[in-house]
Amino acid sequence: MADSSSVVLYYLSQPRSLRHFYFIPTTLALATSLLILFYISSTSNLFAHHHHHAHSIPQLLLNISSSYTPFRVEAHLKADGAQVIEGQRSPEQPQLGSNGNYVNNKAVFHDRHIFLEDYKEMKRSFKIYVYPHRQDDSFANALLPVDSEPGGNYASESYFKKVLMKSHFITNDPTKADLFFLPFSIARLRHDPRIGVGGIQDFIRDYIFNVSHKYEYWNRTGGADHFYVACHSIGRSAMEKANEVKFNAIQVVCSSSYFLPGYIPHKDACLPQIWPRNEKPPDLRSSNRTKLAFFAGGINSPVREKLLQVWRNDSEIFAHFGRLTTPYADELLGSRFCLHVKGFEVNTARIADSLYYGCVPVIIANYYDLPFADVINWSSFSVIVATLDIPLLKKILKEISSDEYLRLQSNVLKVRKHFQWHLSPIDYDAFYMVMYELWLRRGFSTVPLSNFETS
After folding, report:
1. Would the pLDDT of 79 be above 80?
2. Where does the sequence pass through the membrane (predicted)?
3. Is the pTM of this model over 0.90?
């Protein structure tokens, strides 16, 4: 106490100018500390207190239940899910579930009415100009659509280009174009022995140089009305020698992490990583989901290492690393929640896998700019868990009531059509949703960022 008094007396004894000298940095340090504490408390459940107030409903954990009993959920749902677009908008108000607790009644779309009106206008008027290349071009394999049906873990990139080139969005008149498509394929360049991983940056730099000198359109905006599509994570580093692409053009990429440099949210967009499937989604009425949660994959990140460390021997959370002895589809159909856990990148095909099999996705990947986040409300059909909260995973999932889980899974069936590719696109599928994200960005940037000096 004496020491505290001495400090106060010393402070008061200083001239006014010195008092200000001590006061300003002290205030800044205190404010910074408070901001850090606020950020930690708002992003982690470690500091959460679950109080039940009618006017303060937590975003995800709305109904607290202390026990978990496996039960057949899908018997209460339509086999093909509810239609995404039907009826009139209803007010989003809290409703009481069967247990008397409040149920989060968030709609799938942020604003369905605006989306519907914009979607119609997008289909009617949106035009894309693709820089042309001939079949005898030495790099036609990377610049033209694939001849075969796309396959593999990064099929989204090939699907988009193949479908776009046959769509009514394409215009041969660049003066009528809203956006310009740079058609190089990062995935195909990566496997081309003439280019490979080490030569992609030089290829992109030279490609942009040629486009900007042969055509006038790039130079009008410094590439701000241009876009490219890439699903492999190399797509992000591919632009290191083409800064105008990275800072000005629209990057539609699967590895959409706003924490890492090179990706700019709202300018750039997330391409959903989807494993191609030709068959119709399964009938879910007969599935029996006895597992609380499921994950299978390689140990290729600290996040997955933590998941394995905490839950590898748990009887309700099935965290498997290595080759499965049971069919992957059966595990997805037999689990209430399916875990999307960050690997090398924030993105994997597991979100689309979960939706396809009617399993509520749990996203454990910080800083992920999720697909179609401008349009759909992810909290209406998924659970987002901070990586810091992996030890609390079971508690978080068990505190989701039966009513809340039914709502989440019902919305899963509504949104899964947005995460499917078709060679002949179907309204509201992955192709049209990506086109809508691009349409939102048309004319958005008329002054290229690279015009501004950066330190």
Report:
1. no
2. 21-40
3. no
